[in-house]
Amino acid sequence: MNSKRTTRLGIVCTALIALLGTTGIKGCERVTIYELRPESSVSQGCFAPCMCPIALFEGLRGSFVLLERPQPEPSLFRQFTILFVQATLQRGNDFIPIKGSGRYSVGGEFASLQRLEMDLMLGDEPAQHFDSGLVVGGGDFPIIDARISVNGQFCYDTVIDLVAAPIASES
Fold this sequence. Notes:
Largest sheet: 11 strands, antiparallel
Order of helices and strands: HEEEEEEEEEEE
Number of helices: 1
Radius of gyration: 17 Å
Structural class: mainly beta
Strand content: over 45%
């Protein structure tokens, strides 16, 4: 791992241990830093059945921390907490900061299912709850590819296509 990434992981681990204690974070093996991929985007406007233009903003960049939550009993789903969401959305010449946290579940018995929920602040706006619902997907985990929205993609909505992968370690 290069020194910048090692330092970044060390800072995250130190912060998590300070916040949560050492339970479930031994050596931070359950902590993964994720980076948004270029195909991540934000759409805002009217979705069916309403009719108005939809704006697509593709300049979405950033990172977050994924922390696996130990399950007290066997489960078909792996549960994760998302912390330290730090992203930027480019809208024309403006750069809008996005901050927040959330939860991610992946698993299933017969089909691979996933659910991504995030509470995000876009710029100076109050935090909004984005949710994918329980949907087919997650088969490529640890890559996360999910569509989250505030209103279930109904009429006027903000939709985030989030595609993220762990930051590759370097040997």
